[in-house]
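Hi, here's the filled form for the chain we discussed.

Project: internal
Contact: R.S.
Residues: 423
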Amino acid sequence: MVAATGGRLVGPDVEIDGVSFDSRSVKPGQLFVPLVADRDGHEFIDQAIERGAAAYLTSRPPVGGTAIEVPDTLPALMALATSQRRMFDGPVIGITGSVGKTSTKDLAWAALAASIPTWANERSFNNEQGLPTTLLNTPDGTKVLMLEMGMRALGEITELCAIAQPTIGVVTRVAEAHSDRVGGIDGVARAKAELIQALPADGLAILNADDARVRAMEAVCAGSVLLYGETADADVRVSMLRLDDLARASFHLDTPWGSYDVRLAISGRHMANNAAAALACVGAVGGDLVAGAQALSTVGLTAMRMDVRRTSSGAVVLDDSYNANPTSMRAALDALADLTVHRRIAVLGVMAEISDSEAEHLAIAAYATQRGIELIAYGTDLYGVAPNDDPIAALGSIAGGDAVLVKGSRVVGLERIAAALLG
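And the returned structure, exactly as it came back:
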């Protein structure tokens, strides 16, 4: 471990079992990695040691125990993960996309794990801190790694791929997410395509056939390509899609490995495509597709993503508050419109980091009206309606027959509204 970081060992040699960069969640035997961001993680080394950390990285003078001195803790964490990856000889599936990457990762993890020991990012640990931590915490006996990759700028996925060295790459959608940072939606496409460009000649790209910008990534793939979606020429094709009263999809799936009927436990028509991508991953690594499809009939998603629950009065709350961009917002509004209820209300916060923000917000407001949805804007006037700082009061009495969508970018913190509605 010391050699991988290029650092210097201070203190006794110890055995390490996993890593953490959060002193509050350090487990006994782990390596604590103090990162310098809004706060300096070095301030919490003592706390990590008290919680059982066996050792810690540091770019400051050691404070006791076992330390590995390095010039910078984040590059050292990334170097450790790169070294760990070289020792893993199973398939490594990288997944990215402006919309649906975490949901698809959650579905693929469940579907793969039904027949093959699989490890993946918890929550959305998909950046230069979270992905290395995921790799370094891989349990013994893991046969497949599923690594979600996020980006806020060009080159970031290339950097993550240098660590993860994916053999399979999945791209879900290209949309207006972080587009203001990369010169618009075409810049987003270039950033997401970095995953496909990183695949080896014997690698496999699993691409959304229904998204023209994703499908175009076939041109930069050195390996094979598998298309999924509802398009007629998709290799993994969704058909006969129907929704129940909570907008949960059931559909038929034709694949190169056979045909299957799939029923999902999560709401939203768009989840059918995410499930198709997940099952394409199962087929690509030789997993059991029957077991994978069965697993998808019970699996849920990471918190604050298409989480449909009922209040004590019987109203439906669709909590999709984790993040938002125009594409995911339309998908969530569609899911709300597909619920079997009488009244539909959307509590919407700002969509951050998108190009042409004013036009995009007004377009979402018009789309909500088109779908017969009442709109309550929280903390922003970009939707063209007066902002409301107390959406709970604005909703009034909601009961059976009513449905409320709560959605906005992460900075808004709309999960508090969803929690309040649900008591």
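Let me know if anything looks off before we file it.
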